[in-house]
Prior knowledge:
With about 260 residues, the chain is of the alpha+beta class. The protein folds into two domains: about 30-150, FAD/NAD(P)-binding domain (3-Layer(bba) Sandwich), CATH 3.50.50.60; about 175-255, Glutaredoxin. It is built from eight helices and ten strands. The chain has helices spanning about 5-15, 60-85, 95-115, 125-135, 135-150, 185, 205, 250-255, and strands at about 35, 40-45, 45, 55, 175, 180, 195, 215-220, 230-235, 240. A four-stranded mixed sheet has the order 8-7-9-10, with helices on one face. Strands 1-4 form a two-stranded antiparallel ribbon. A hairpin with a 2-residue loop joins β5 and β6 (about 180). α2 (about 60-85) runs antiparallel to α3. It is elongated. The N and C termini lie far apart (about 60 Å). About 25% of the residues are buried.
Amino acid sequence: MPPTLEELRGEVSWLAGRDIAMRDARWVGRFSDFTRLAGTFRAGRVFLAGDAAHVHFPIGGQGLSTGVLDALNLGWKLALAVRGAAGAGLLDTYDAERRPVARRVIDNTQAQLTLMRPGCELDALRTVFAGLMAAGRESGQRLGSMISAQDTVLPEHTAGPGPAAGTFLDNVVLATAAGERDAIQLLQEGKPLLLLFGEEDSGHRDQARAWAGTLKVVRARAVPGVPYEAVLVRPDGYLAWTSGGCGLQEALSVYFAKDAPPGRP
């Protein structure tokens, strides 16, 4: 039976705990709570993203957000592969990075759906959960980060890529030779970014010379919150490597192909 505006109003009012007025609905649909997760997000030249890869209850728009982040993760990798600048296993990292995230989204939406179900048998669970939420800001921030995917940590693709590798780089403002630039501005070209901090040259630029055609190298003044001599930032804003981990060349080789020798395409 097609849903009605009155049915929707009743459900929303029950969730909110107060009467919610609604009128002049343009479209009312019904969503199922079934879930699906593809066994792999890549099979040869075929890649799955968004609803083709994962389906779940659409609470909080997390399905849309997850699909957009799938595209963000895959887009720059495909671009490098088309240009012949991708490391040998770069496209395989798409499944390794995005499928666990989709699994986690499915799990947390199922948990949220459980809390929403009617029935007094779940009142105790709702009471406990509400108490945890009221205990302090940390609980709310943790849930917010989970729902927004800002707490996503990517798996390691090298033997010890360094502290903070796999986390998202905050949009810090950096003092460069071209003036103040934030991280997003430096990534607008869609190129991986090697950020060198401070005045001393620790040889990182020389180590990355074989990838000069792919990398954007920027020297910036050291900033609080980024306690490294150098960081390698992927085009999607995640840290692929930080100084203090494995060698920079090892990390670069995993993600990017070396420049072609002079005279060769």
